Amino acid sequence: MTSTPDAAGLTAPAYGDRSLADVLPSVARALGSPLEGHPVGLDLPPAPSYVVFLVDGLGAELLTRHGHAAPYLSSLLDGGTTGTAGVPSTTATSLTSLGTGLPPGAHGLVGFTARIPGTDRLLNHLGWDKHVDPTEWQPHPTAFGRLAHAGVHVTSVNKRDFNGSGLTVASQRGATYVGADRVGERIAATVAASAHAPSLTYVYDSDLDWTGHKFGVASSQWLQQLAMVDAEAEQLREALPSATRLLVVADHGMVDSPSSARVDVDEVDGMRDGVALIGGEARFRHVYCAAGAVDDVVATWREVLGARATVLSREDVVGRGWFGSVAPGVLPRLGDVMVACHDDTAIVSTRDFPYENTLVGLHGSLTPAEMRIPILVG
Question: I need a labelling partner for 180 at 20 to 30 A (CA). Which of 46, 271, 307, 332 fits?
Answer without folding.
Answer: 46
